[in-house]
Amino acid sequence: MDASPDFPRQSRAPVFNMPGVVTASIAVLVAIQAIREYLLSDVRDIQVVLDLALVPARWTVWFDPSRVAEVIQAAASGDPDVAAMREAFARYVTGQQSLEPWTLATYALLHGSWMHVLFNSVWLAAFGTPVARRCGAWRYGALALAGILAGGLLHIMIDPLSATPLVGASAGISALMAAAARFVFQPPVSGYGTQPWQRTAHRPAETIPELLRNRTVVSFLAIWFVTNLLFGIVSLPLGAESAAVAWDAHLGGFIAGFLLFPLLDRKFPPTR
To answer: pTM of the entire structure?
Structure first.
């Protein structure tokens, strides 16, 4: 006689069983990229980027019009083959004298290429899924939005003279990644087995001292920061020439997600 408990079978593999809000997020990003690639003319697509991407120089000049000359000079430096084009774009942006505050969030809806959007979709599925399952849809969305806003602000602060449009959902994904790091790498609770039904369903997020004692978390954070440092040194655009992804936006999003997660996390009874 088999005395083992009868547990329900998973109808689908976990990788194909994402929460609806994560699936919807990926679908939106892919749909926007498809519309830009296949339905919009080049002129209209450029206008979409101008209207929705985050341009630090636009914000800098709006708050301090006296820095227009600095922005133009910074754009004209570097590779002479594209300097004239960058300078012309900088003159256009600074001549608008328009803040366009919505771009602090909408830049995350655009991507530089299919490779860029697919790369971000993979990471969103990997780290958005545990956060959405644990916290629910609106907390998942709030964390992602906070990361997007924080990433955009840090990018403006670090590179205020840049006239290059910033695009990509990486800052929001970095926030979800940081949030997930606070609970997905927890060691098993003493007294429980390693099978899923023998683990406690919910455990509080680890505190910073607990995280620093967790070698898996420390290794993960070290790899993440080194990778982003390399992004800053190498300046890989992951797509179109006119739309680079900034390492500082990743960092701003990560910090926001790491610090805000305990405030947005659901409250669970302590483990025994």
So the answer is: 0.84
